[in-house]
Structure formats: structure tokens, C-alpha cells
Amino acid sequence: MAACEKRRSAPAPATGSGLVEPVRAGVGGREPESEAEFLLQAGVTSMVREALLKVLEARPEEPVSFLASYFEKLVLSGPQGGAAADRHRQQQRLVRALWYVRLAHHSHRTAFHNNVSMAYECLSARGRRKKPGVNGRIYSELLRKICQDGEAPEEVVSSLLTKIQCRDHEAVPFDVFRYGVLSCVVLLEFVAKADTLYDILDDGSGMADKRVCHAVLGTLEDALGASDFSVPIRYLEAGSKLGPDCLALAMDKALLERKICSSMNREEFLKKATALFIAKVKPID
Amino acid sequence: MATRPAPCTVRSPVALQVGDVKTDLARPGVAVIDVALPPAQPLDLQEIVFKNSYTAFLTVRVQRRHPCDVGRASARKWVTCLWNHCLMPSPHTEAGSQDYFSLFRHQLLCDVDQVTAVRLILRQPSPVWLHFTLEELRLYPRGQQSLQTDFPSWLSHLAPQQQPENLHGGVPDPEKVSTEVQQLWVLTEMIRANQTAARIGRFDVSFQLALFIAHRGWPPVLGLLCGPACTEGAGCILGTGSICCHPELLPAGHAVRNAIKLLGKLLRVPGSGVLEVGNSHLP
After folding, report:
1. B9-17+26-141 has which CATH code?
2. Domain residue spans in chain B?
3. Its domain of life (chain A) (predicted)?
4. Looking at beta carbons, which residues of chain A come within 8 Å of B198?
5. Bridge partners for B121 per DSSP
6. Paired strand residues for B78
């Protein structure tokens, strides 16, 4: 509750110090028109509006818990006493940025973009003396943290990170930041999808046939490398290559090959699949 | 279109009108478009393509040269090869008024070989439309189809030609596999489409340059190792005052050049300068 008090008092100085007193005194409720005024003064109106906007952007499955965590974060990120160490504050900013990134799924493009820019702003805020901006260290740390909460194997994550990480001293422009965050988020989803694919391929036995795995991944690679990036027709081409008919044919052909029947475990499959994805990620230079 | 239309000159339509064009209030219901073909090369007509513009009925007449008596003027005869072909089923309404039409050889009443001129007679009985004509008129010679023929095979055969008759027992459900693989594809395409042009502007050369000099001792051999991503291996250039401009470093080439010059001066290397080398020295 103490934090709430601080939060409430925060916007007040901006509107003029003369108004602060009546607002605090007005909590008891003196006149009907002062209620709306109070909400405005205390920043509740804009806060609630912001919260509603976030709900609309993210469209969470459970709005109540979403709002609960939203307000919780708001309390945590509120202005702290001067006693808090700089390191601690930075850590908090990181947590907040991470939370922003996770608010909306990346397929909600506008919402995701907004949230990423909020995260960027949040990270780039600095102390009074330091210049604002995001440096490579905090950017890389954010990426690592994003990747941690998925089920992506360590090896896969590190191979992506080496491509998009920045060095500690480097200043990270927003575009690079956005691309890096997006790559991590999409990688996590890619890994999850590839995992599901493996479940289908192994047919519940826990071990998928190596030849089939190779055939499927080969088809995917083929479709990805199909033709020139700018030509729209390649979407159709990829669609035809990845249709059930073509895949069935490829898998059938793979099974007919006279090779020793060996299996591919899940880790290996995920590694091979994500390698296709990571190859398309543009390295930072 | 994959093929080229025959070269011809399409004259502007001439309205058939009785009386003075300017003062007479009655609108003409017939117009004629003449198409002149190059006299030297008669055309074997395959297809007439045009876009309608409020013409209700079309009559086509062609001038043919009889193959057996070439050279005689009288051998050229006008024949009607299309008679009152309906373009607008109901002339007072819009239907068909701006459609594209394609008239093929087999739709015409007679042979259209050795054609030297074409005359299109346009009729519009309805007074509703102020003007009527044909647009984008093109004649295609025989032996060429206006259809595009260079479709990729996967587009013309949406289902693969060879259907697997009975799948091998162990094949996983292709429907499910396809769904998942397509999603993987979408995600990868998305990341490819989102690539940015923004750069950090990394440039590590000076550090490596210094290292290099330290290793060589006196007299200093100025050189430059490639960037960290160089796959050719270190030591691709070792010459006095020379510089290796790896493609990756090219944008920074100017800075490198200055650094080399400065170092050459500082260390008083005789004859130090910048020698640009391409990739040719690389193993």
C-alpha cells in the first residue's frame, strides 16, 4: 500500500504543487465533482485506461490474472527510494522489459511492436548523469532471459544468441533491438512447434525414424530455399511443396530406401530443425 | 502474355452518320474501325482480343489475298467472317459493356489466312450510350497462342502427378505433419521478412592491427588480419604497408587506410603506403 501512495503522489507535482493538498484532503469525499477530479489528479484514470488498452492489445485468456500481474508490476516498477542500489534498479528494469515483451504474442503485430518499444524505452532510461540508450550488455541479458523460459535446448539458444547478441559496450539501435527480441520469441515458438512435429513423427514410440525425419526436414529446407525472396509466387510454390501429398510422397520414398533402420532422438531433431530457422536469421553486424 | 501480337495499325473509329456531324442531334449507331496490316506480310489470323467499350454487336470483315493468284489487285477480296456477334446481351444495360473478348479462329465463319486488312463494324442500337468503341485491340497470328505456357509444373498440377497408391505402413499422418511443417515454414519466413537494415556498425580492425605489429617485431610489417568472420584463415596478407580489404571490411576501408598510413608514419617504415588487394591472393 505504501508503494501505492508513492505512485499516486508521483504525477501530482507535474500538475502544480498547489493542487496536491486538496487532493490528499479530498480522499474523505467532500464534493461530488471532486471525485472525478481526484481520479484525474491521482493518475488513476490514465492508469486504468492504460491497463484496459493492454488487455485489449494482448487479449489474454484470463483477464483477471493478467490485470493482477499488470498492477503488480506497476507497483514494483514505481519510483523507489534513493536507497535502492543502481544494480538493483537495472535488474528491475530488465524484469519489467521482459514482462512487456511477454505481454502480447508476436502475431499481434501492433501490440507486440508497441510493447517492444516500451521495453526499449524502459531499458534505455538511465540515471541523471548517464546518457540514455540501450547498451549491448543489457540487451544481450534480456535476450538470454527471453530464451530461458522456453524449452529450447541450451545449444540451440546459444547458436541463435551468437548471431544476434551485441557486445557489452555497443549501443543498440531500436531496429536491432526489435529484431533480436522478435528472433528469440519466434525461436521459442519454433522449438515448440518442432517438438510437436516430433511427437507426430515418432508416433508415440519415443523414437522417430531417421529417414522420415530427414525427408521432412529436407522438404522444409527445400521450401525455404525455394526461390527469390521478393517473388510472391514462391509462397504458392512452398505451399505446394509442403502440402500433405508431397510430404507423404517424400516420407514414403524415404522409407522405401534400403538403409539400416535407425532412429533420431528428440534433441537431434530439434537441433536440425532449428538450424534451418537460425540460418535465416540475419546476423548483427 | 507470352506471345507478341501481330504488328498492325488500328485507326480510330469512324462513325457513320447522315447529315452534319456537329449540328445533327441524332447519334450514330454504327462505327467502323479499320486495321491496316503491313502490306508485305499477310497475316494468318488466330485470335482477335479486345476490350469492349459499350459496343452491342460486332461484325468483322477481312480482306484476303487468294494464295493462287498473288500479285493481281482483284485477287484481294473482302469477306465477312463474323456477323452481328453479340457483345452486350441487352444493349440498354451494362452487361458485357466493358468485358474483354477473345475471338478465336474456329469461331469465325470462314478461313482467315493471308489477311491483308481487317475492318470491324460496331453497332450500338441503344441511345443510352454516348460513345462506343473497342479498346486494346490486338491481333494474334497463327502458330502462337496468347495463353501463357511457361507455368511451373507444380502450379499446373496442384496434386502431384504420382499419387502414392498405398503408403508404407510406418508413415506418420501426412496431414498432421504438413500442418506442423507449414507452421515452421511460416515462422521462418516471418523472421526473414522482418530483417532490418539497421547495423551496429562493428569494426574491430584497429585492435587486430596492433596485435599484428606486436607479433612481428622490427622492422614492422604492417598488415591487417581479416575480421572475425573471415573463413580464409589468418595471415591472408603479410606485406610491408599493405592492406587486406576483406569484403566485410570494405565499408570501413577508408578508416583502415588512414590507420595504416598513420602507423607507417609513426613507425617510420620506409615506403609504407596503401596497396589495395582484392581477394585474388587468398588461398
Report:
1. 2.60.120.260
2. 9-17+26-141, 205-277
3. Eukaryota
4. 173-176, 179
5. B32, B59
6. B63
pLDDT tens digit sequence for B213-223: 444 444 444 44
Strands B275-277 and B242-244: parallel
B260: closest CA among B207, B206, B214, B211? B206
Question: Which residues 17-36 in chain A show a CB within 8 A of chain B?
Answer: none
What residue ranges do the domains of chain A occupy? 1-78, 86-190, 192-280
Contact B178/A280, CB-based, under 8 Å? Answer: no
DSSP per-residue codes, chain B: --SPPPP-EEPPPEE--SS-TTT--SPPSEEEEEEEPPTTS-B-EEEEEEEEES--EEEEEEEEE-STTTT-GGGEEEEEEEEEEESSSSTTS-TTTT-EEEEEGGGSSS---SEEEEEEEEE---TT-S--EEEEEEEEETT--SS-----HHHH-SS-SS--SS--TT---HHHHHHHHHHHHHHHHHHHHT----------HHHHHHHHHHHH-SSP----PPPTT-SS-S-S---TTEEE--GGGGGGHHHHHHHHHHHHHHHT-TT---EEE-STT--
CB contact under 8 A, A251 and B171: yes
Per-residue pLDDT of chain A (285 residues; tens, 9 = 90+): 444 444 444 444 444 444 344 444 444 445 556 888 888 888 888 888 888 888 888 888 888 888 888 887 777 655 554 544 566 777 888 888 888 888 888 888 888 998 999 888 888 876 555 667 788 888 888 888 888 877 788 888 888 888 888 888 888 888 888 999 999 999 999 999 998 888 888 877 778 888 888 888 888 888 887 555 666 777 778 888 888 888 888 888 888 876 667 788 888 888 889 898 888 888 887
- Range 164-223 of B in CB contact (< 8 A) with A: 164, 167-168, 170-178, 180-185, 187-192, 194-200, 202
| Residues pairing with B65 in the sheet | B76
**Region for B84 from its dihedrals, namely left if φ exceeds 0, alpha if ψ lies in -120 to 50, beta otherwise:** left
Q: State the pLDDT at residue B254.
A: 59
